[in-house]
Please model this.
Amino acid sequence: MTQPFRNLFFLLFLLPLMGQGQGREKPLREVAPFTLGTTLEMNSFARPEVVAIYRREFHRITCGNSMKIKGSQPTADTFDFTMADSIVNDALRHGQLVHGHTLIWGKSLPDWLVNFQGDSVAWEQIMKTRIQTVMRHFKGRIHSWDVVNEAFNDDGTMRTVVKKKGQKENLWCQKLGPDFVARCFQYAREADPDALLFYNDYGQEYSEAKNKAILRMISSFRKRGIPIDGIGLQLHTSLDRPDALILKGIRAMASTGLLVHISELDVSVKKQLDEGMDPAAAAKAQAAKYETIVKYMKSLPEKQQFGITLWGVTDADTWLKNDTPLLWDAHNHKKQAWYGFYRGLLQKP
Ligand code: G3I
Model:
């Protein structure tokens, strides 16, 4: 074979077979039938390679921390949106959407709130003012919100106070009673009637009791005319979580007819690696898990597919210690996980 022919042969036949054709794939957002998001924080801007990835690959960003109470409300009467505004405005300048996270959550509370001594009327006022001030500030810029985050224990009871193993504290519920969730949604709709309102939680893929509790809450909202548009399944998952359970959790949430957002996706591999699993096998299994989850989202009725949000861009961003649960490695290279996610987007459900 002469040199020019050899070069042509290499380009046409051999190159596509090497490394899954790496480097020629389209960005995820160009092949996704639903919106794709990731988290972003101010310190990401110091890493141009990461910024390039999220602008190229994702439709939407979620502030990982800066919209939480701790990150945006230094006292009962003062709000500080400096960080959140910078992130939101940057996203909008680059044609991206923003998902608001999170208005009311029992965690990440500042000391002034934990130590607040007011009665239930005063607590209600804090809750309402917070929801409405934040939503009105971002009105027209943020079109979807996690209104309430993680109100239920895994056993399906509401988080109130630590009682027994597995049950968690939630000051809002302690001070205001279990129906605080419904009122949050009413306050949110009042503040911005155009925004999509989500209830966000984790564990739908392993806790039947929590699923039932969420479904009961949605059905009670329906009966009482409480507004809600969607449910977020965080899906901080891992290799050993059976696919069938993940599908069951997603379908349970979809059975409400509401929008479904896989809102904080990551796939942990730490346990398996610690137990001696071959890293190559773990990477392959992680890719397969991502592929499957994407396909599950695609299998829902189209109008309910709000989208998928990854909880971080690279493994350097993850909240999980000593883990590598995301689509890019800590050196900003696409992992097999990325290719699994991509395959899931391309395949028929
Ligand atoms: O910014 C401060 C820094 O100034 C300080 O030096 C450092 C010392 O610990 O703390 C930094 O703040 C930390 C912040 O993350 C930013 O890194 C907080 O302590 C830490 O509590 C906070 O953790 C976040 C956690 O939520 C609690 O808010 C994680 O980054 C964030 O990924 C995680 O996200 C949650 C979702 O909101 C809800 N679902 C579960 C998910 C994972 O826990």
Remarks:
- The CA atoms of residues 139 and 192 lie 6 Å apart.
- Residues 64-65, 68, 107-108, 149, 234, 264, 319 surround G3I (CB under 6 Å).
- The chain has 14 helices and ten strands.
- The beta strands are 35-40, 60-63, 97-100, 104-105, 144-149, 196-201, 230-233, 236-238, 259-268, 305-310.
